[in-house]
Amino acid sequence: MPTSITTRRPHLDRERLLRELVPPPRFDAERFSTYRPDPAQPSQAAAVQRLEEYAAELASAAGNGSGGGGLGRLFRRGSGGRAAPKGVYLDGGFGVGKTHLLASLWHAAPEPKAFGTFVELTNLVGALGFSETVEALQGYRLVCIDEFELDDPGDTVLMATLLTRLAEAGVGLAATSNTLPGALGEGRFAAEDFLREIQKLADRFEVLTIDGEDYRHRGLAPSPPPLSDEEVSARVTDDGLCDNFDDVIRHLATVHPSRYHALLDGVGSVGWQGVHPVSDQMVALRLVVLADRLYDNDIPVYASGHPLGEVFTPELMQGGYRKKYFRAVSRLTALAREGAGEVAHGMG
User: Fold this and answer.
1) Contact 298, 345 (CB under 8 A)
2) Range of the domain at 276
3) Band of residue 194 on the pLDDT scale cut at 50, 70, 90
4) CA distance linking residue 294 with residue 321, whole number of Å
5) DSSP for 224-257?
6) Are residues 200 and 54 in the same domain?
7) N or C end of the chain: which has fewer CB within 10 A?
8) In the structure, how many helices (H) and strands (E) does the chain have?
C-alpha cells in the first residue's frame, strides 16, 4: 500500500553525504556515446569533443603520477609550477543534455571524483564544516557541480572560496548552469556588491555554450491532463507515496533539503492530490529541490488539481529565480509524462 511522505523523517550522516556524491540513478548508464547531438546545433557535438579532451587530460595527469589533488603536481601554483587548469562550465537552456554530459565526464574521469548538485555541495559544507569539506575533496581528481546557481551572498563567498581552494590544490572542476558564470546571482541579490567573488568564479572556468531546445518537450504536448483524486490513488504503486499537495508542502518545511534524497529512499512513484499554484518563494524553492531529487531518481509523478506546469504562479515564473522554476516545471512535466507512458528517458 502507498504511504504518506509525512511519515518519513530521514537522518543523514557525513559518510552518506560523501558516499552519495555520484551521478543520480537516471544517469548511471549515460556516457558520451549515448548523447545524441542535434545536427542542427553544432555546439552540442563541439561540447562532447571538448569534454572528451578534458577527460583525457585528467587521465593523462593521473597517469603521470600526480598524487593527492589529482592534477596538483602538474598545475599547482608555486615555484616553477603552473596554475591550476581552468574548469569546464556548461552553459545552456533546459533539456539540452548538460547533466548527461557532466555525468559522462564523471564516468570517463579517473578516480577519485565527486558529482553533486550545487545544493548538495553547499549542504556538505554545512554538515562537515568548510575546512573538513576542503580536506575531503582536495584529494579528488575531479569535482562536478550540477545546476550551479547562487541564491544569496553567503553562497557566493562560500563557493568562490571553496572552488579557489580546490583549484589551488589541483582539482579539476566542471559545472553546469543556465546562467553564464559572470551573471550568477543576477536578479536575486545585489550582485554588484559581490562582483569580485563572482568574477573569481568566472575566471576558474572555460565556458562551453550548448544551444538547443528542451528535449523533454520536442514534439510533445505541454503536459498530461490532471488526473482525478481517485485516479491518482489507483495509479500510485505499493512502494509509492500518495498525499494531498498541501500536506507535502507542510512536510517539506520540516525536513532540511539535504535530506530530500533520503526522503525518497525506496520510493517507486509519487501521487499529489489537489495540486495548486504556489506563490510563497520559500515553499517554491523547496519544491524545486524535491523536483530535482524526483527527477534524479526517475520517480513518476501522478497529480490531480492544476496541471504541474502551473505549480508556480506567473509572478514567480517571472522573478529572479525563474530559471529554477522553469527547470522544475520541465522536470515535473517529464515525470508526469513518464507516468502516463508518453515519453522515454532522454538526455537529461
Assistant:
1) yes
2) 217-339
3) very low
4) 20
5) PPPBPHHHHHHHS-TTSEEEEHHHHHHHHTTS-G
6) yes
7) N
8) 14, 8
Q: Does residue 256 sit in the same domain as residue 316?
A: yes
Are 99 and 177 in a shared domain? yes
DSSP result, 327-342: HHHHHHHHHHHHHTT-
Confidence at 241, pLDDT banded by 50, 70, 90: very high
Domain final residue, candidates 195, 213, 231: 213
Separation in Å, CA 259 to CA 3, 9, 120, 242: 18, 9, 10, 19
Residue 168 C-beta-side C-alpha neighbours within 13 Å: 11
> Residue 6 falls within a domain, yes or no?
no
Residue, of 92 and 264, whose pLDDT is higher:
264
Cβ(295)–Cβ(329) below 8 Å: no
Among 213, 241, 256, where does a domain finish? 213
What is the rounded CA–CA span in Å between residue 71 and residue 169?
8
Cβ neighbors of 116 (< 8 A, separation 6 or more) are: 20, 21, 124, 144, 145, 146
Residues 205, 303: one domain? Answer: no
Q: Clarify whether residues 74 and 186 are in a common domain.
A: yes
> Cell 522554476 sits at which residue?
325
Residue with cell 615555484: 79
Structural domain includes residue 60: yes
Give residue 151's pLDDT.
59
Q: How many domains does the chain have?
A: 2
Count Cβ atoms within 10 A of the Cβ of residue 230 and give its class: 0-12 exposed, 13-18 middle, 19 or more buried.
Answer: exposed
Instruction: Please report whether residue 67 resides in a domain.
Output: yes
pTM over 0.70: yes
